[in-house]
């Protein structure tokens, strides 16, 4: 019993320590963005590497995701002669849930791991210490532009995922199953609304902030040489993915609670 209590106590302390560090690091990174120098070039660079370079993988994933939704729902809707409703299902599913979550998980795997590995390598090779010696704030220089670039990029990537996912569902429904395209588009317009898109964009912004801050946090506090960098990268991806799924539920619950 004593050992169990000790294990629980250590877990609670580690949990509180992690979120305490996360809050302090996030607060510093967000507020430092408004202090000169602004370093817009670094922000634009991360917009390109995190946002633009992620478009191909987001596009392919969203196209087939929309197609899979259409494939899975066709048999059920066909029994009631309601195949034209597939478009609304694809649009709402992609906008509210699948586009922000899948985009966030893909960016976590692609860019979140890179953030943790790069910053972690700089930590163990004492490059961050060198920045501090040169009076350069490492949080502002390394973390702030990544956080803002990731948050903004994920919002736009989610919009792209919405569009391409719907195209995937349209191609499968209309060109494979022969659904009437006029009814398909009309019922999509009737049942899918802009608030569905806004819900997804709210989630995307929160997910972008979470995955970037958690990934940078693990990289910034890396210890133990090359092995420590690998461990930090793994923990960053796992923790970010879990946080995305947990906050996905919380945001959905709050939006429904307040009827937003």
Written description of the protein model:
It is found in: Membrane. Belongs to the MlaE permease family. This protein has one domain. Helix content is 86%, strand content 0%. It contains 9 helices and no strands. It has helices at residues 2-32, 40-51, 55-78, 86-124, 127-133, 138-176, 181-191, 194-220, 225-257. It is elongated and about 70 Å long.
Put the structure in a nutshell:
With 260 residues, the protein is mainly alpha-helical.
Helix content: over 70%
Q: Care to count the β-strands?
A: 0
Q: Characterize the largest beta sheet: strand count, sense, and whether it forms a barrel.
A: none
What Rg, in angstroms, do the CA atoms define?
21 Å
Count structural domains. 1
Contiguous helical run count: 9
Q: How many angstroms separate the termini?
A: 46 Å
The average pLDDT is: 90
Order of helices and strands: HHHHHHHHH
């Amino acid at each position: 019993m004593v050992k169990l209590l000790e294990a629980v106590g250590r877990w609670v302390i580690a949990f509180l320590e992690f979120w305490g560090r996360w809050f302090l690091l996030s607060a510093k990174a967000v507020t430092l963005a408004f202090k000169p120098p602004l370093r817009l070039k670094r922000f634009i660079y991360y917009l390109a590497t995190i946002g633009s370079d992620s478009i191909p993988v987001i596009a392919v994933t969203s196209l087939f995701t929309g197609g899979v939704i259409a494939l899975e729902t066709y048999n059920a809707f066909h029994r009631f002669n309601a195949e034209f409703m597939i478009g609304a299902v694809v649009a709402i599913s992609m906008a509210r849930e699948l586009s922000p979550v899948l985009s966030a998980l893909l960016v976590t795997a692609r860019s979140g791991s890179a953030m943790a590995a790069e910053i972690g390598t700089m930590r163990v090779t004492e490059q961050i210490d060198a920045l501090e010696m040169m009076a350069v704030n490492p949080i502002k220089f390394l973390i702030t532009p990544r956080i803002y670039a990731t948050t903004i990029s994920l919002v736009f990537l989610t919009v792209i995922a919405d569009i391409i996912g719907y195209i995937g569902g349209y191609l499968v429904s209309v060109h494979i199953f022969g659904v009437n395209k006029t009814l398909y588009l009309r019922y999509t317009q009737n049942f899918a609304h802009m608030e569905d898109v806004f819900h997804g964009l709210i989630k995307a912004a929160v997910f972008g902030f979470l995955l970037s801050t958690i990934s940078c946090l693990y990289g910034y506090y890396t210890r133990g040489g090359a092995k420590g960098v690998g461990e930090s990268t793994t923990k960053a991806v796992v923790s970010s993915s879990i946080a995305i799924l947990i906050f996905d539920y919380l945001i959905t619950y709050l939006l429904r609670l307040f009827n937003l």
